[in-house]
Amino acid sequence: MRSIKKIVWIVALILFAGNMNVSAQDQDLKGGNAKDKMKEQRDKANQEKEKMEKMEKEAEKKAKKEAGKLKDKADKKKNDWQDAANDAKKDVSPNGGKDLEYMAQLREKYKKAKTDEERAEIMKMIEQEKLRLEKEGKDKGGAVAGDVKDKMDNVVKDAEDKVGSVKGEVEAAKGDGGAVVAKNDGNAYGKDKGDLKGRDFGIARANEAKAKLEAREADLANKEELVKRGRARIAAAQERLKQAKEDGSMTEEQMAQYQTRIDKAIAGIDKLEASISAGKASYAKQKASLQSVYQDN
Amino acid sequence: MKILMKFFLVFLLVGVFSCRDTKKEEEDTEAALEKIEAVEAEAQEIESKINEEASELEDSLKELDSI
User: Fold this and answer.
1) ipTM of the shown complex
2) CA angle, A169 as apex, A168 and A172 as ends, to 5°?
3) Could A234 and B64 be called an inter-chain contact, meaning their C-beta atoms sit closer than 8 Å?
4) Which of A6, A106, A217, B65 is most exposed by smallest CB count within 10 Å?
């Protein structure tokens, strides 16, 4: 009886060992295939990574170049307007030089005056003239300064928009690079996920996707800012056009052309605003979807 | 002999369950990754569209400055 038991056990052990062997082989095969696949993906990812790094560098270079150009342009415009403002200041004070001559004459008269009454009279005239010149200078100077300030504000806004958009491109390039790399070998945001696998890798990937989604949401806020500024610029352009209409300084054709431009800008701003709203809703939905990928994530 | 049998059974159970778990986990991970990638692709598309529209708007706004 004991020997039968022994035989049964030996047979069972042989079967078990065989089963384990087959299972191990199967796993090896799977593992081998997976390893090959992983290697292939890693190579691909490395290539993509290099490509993205190159793109990123190029985009950064472009951004720097663009920012430099805009700065030069802004400086040039600033100088031009400074010159214009200086010219305007020159224009407002002397009234073609006549006011100064008149003042000089009054001062001469004051010096030559013999009686106190005469001096008082001339002093009164000098004071009146001073007040008048001051007032005229302020009015004209203030208008010129306001104009220069508006133009400067526009240039600064343009420069900010442009630099913001180039920065956005750089960020997008960075984001794309990160996504490709993470997709293939799990490297994302500089964190090595090479050792992570299975569920841990999935969780890390979901967190990374969520972080990217949050960055995109932040970018939407910048776009909302652009919409706001755009509306202000459109309102200013409409005001200028209205002014030109009243002054009659434009032809009908020019006015129609400018009105078309304004309409185009309004349509563009409405379209962008709608896309931003839709984007916000989609991002919120996607965020919820990512949360549900790993509930305990 | 009984001890050996117990060890053997435990070993067998652990082997079987670990194999099953791995497979299930891989499937789950794969499904999750597919879902994440789909979400990212959609988000990327939305972002590109918005960036394009913003760029067009910037051009239109620049045209207004000459008025």
Assistant:
1) 0.70
2) 85
3) yes
4) A6
pLDDT of A256 > 60? The answer is yes
What's the pLDDT tens digit per position in A85-98?
565 555 544 454 56
pLDDT of residue A94: 47
Report pLDDT for A130: 75
Contact B61 A176 (CB under 8 A): no
pLDDT > 50? residue A60: yes
Residues counted in chain B: 67
Cβ-Cβ contacts under 8 Å, B67 against chain A: 237, 240-241, 244, 258, 261-262
In three state form, how does the secondary structure of B4-54 look? HHHHHHHHHHHHHHHHHHHHHHHHHHHHHHHHHHHHHHHHHHHHHHHHHHH
pTM of the predicted model as reported, rounded to 2 decimal places: 0.45
Residue of A nearest to B54 (CA): A272
Nearest one of B61, B6, B44, B43 to A154, comparing CA atoms: B61
User: Which of A21, A293, A295, A297 should we substitute to test contact with B (largest number of B Cβ atoms within 10 Å)?
Assistant: A293
Among the partner residues B12, B29, B36, nearest to A290 by beta-carbon distance: B36
- pLDDT tens for A192-221 read 455 667 778 888 888 888 899 999 999 999
Helix, strand and coil content of chain A, in percent to the nearest 5, comes to: 90, 0, 10
Contact list in B for residue A214 (CB cut-off 8 A) is none
Rounded average pLDDT over A249-254: 85
Task: Give the SS3 label for residue A97.
Answer: coil
| Residue A190 pLDDT level (bands cut at 50, 70, 90) | very low
Say which of A179, A220, A262 has its CB closest to residue B40.
A179
DSSP string, A195-244: T--HHHHHHHHHHHHHHHHHHHHHHHHHHHHHHHHHHHHHHHHHHHHHHH
